[in-house]
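Here is the promised in-class demo. Please do not try to memorize the tokens; focus on the logic of going from shape to residues.
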């Protein structure tokens, strides 16, 4: 990591436990990620993620969505907070709201999301259960830029995990979450280092090392 470069200012939007927020904090603490979390915003006053932010003295704010009848109105409030903090990248980490096109246009290709499936398979909610019910042999997680669709934006990084026979939703979710904690800080690091260029649907990563592995599940035994 270059020592002289100014840290990337990020704002993290959360709704729940905040284990991805924790993974990002850990990477910053380890100096693996040159970023500064300027603010954590939650729509849920009971989100444990807010406790995590407090523990590290990270500025945090609860903006309850129940108080706003229009999506646009809510999004204007949080956009103002993010802009006031000079946020360069908005990181959605388990934020359970769909953002308005107006919000997205204020941060073009400057919003990232993590989704617990290999997009474009299984967009939306409860996707670990959907993957099990469908019978896929692999699932995983995806970090992507956010566009005006739901889980449709350009893909930055993905990790694949096997789906085992008899997996419960909890078991698969845990296996996926472990990989989320690895790929989200990495995606932010690539952005912070200026290595991501969006070209149509594709994200071009400069100086990218190609992976050689081929995965088969269940393994071939002949
Ligand atoms: C993760 O599975 C993420 O992919 C999804 O919501 C969950 C958030 O977990 N969008 P956490 O709050 O980061 O622990």
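The designed amino acids, position by position:
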């Amino acid at each position: 990591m270059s020592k002289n470069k100014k840290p990337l200012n990020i704002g993290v939007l959360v709704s729940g436990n905040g284990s991805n927020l924790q993974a990002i904090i850990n990477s910053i603490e380890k100096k693996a990620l040159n970023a500064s979390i300027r603010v954590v915003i939650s729509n849920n006053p009971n989100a444990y993620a807010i406790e995590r932010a407090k523990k590290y003295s990270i500025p945090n704010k609860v903006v309850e969505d129940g108080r706003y009848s229009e999506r646009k109105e809510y999004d204007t409030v949080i956009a103002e907070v993010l802009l006031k903090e000079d946020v360069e990248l908005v990181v959605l980490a388990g934020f359970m709201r769909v953002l308005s096109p107006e919000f997205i246009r204020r941060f073009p290709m400057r919003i990232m999301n993590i989704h617990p499936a290999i997009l474009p398979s299984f967009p939306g909610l409860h996707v670990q259960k959907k993957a099990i019910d469908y019978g896929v042999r692999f699932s995983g997680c995806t970090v992507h830029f956010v566009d005006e669709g739901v889980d449709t934006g350009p893909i930055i990084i993905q990790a694949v995990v096997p789906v085992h026979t008899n997996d419960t939703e909890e078991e698969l979710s845990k296996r996926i979450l472990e990989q989320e904690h690895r790929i989200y800080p990495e995606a932010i690091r690539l952005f912070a280092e200026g290595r991501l260029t969006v070209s149509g649907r594709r994200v071009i990563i400069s100086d990218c090392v190609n992976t050689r592995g081929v995965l088969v599940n269940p393994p071939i035994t002949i």
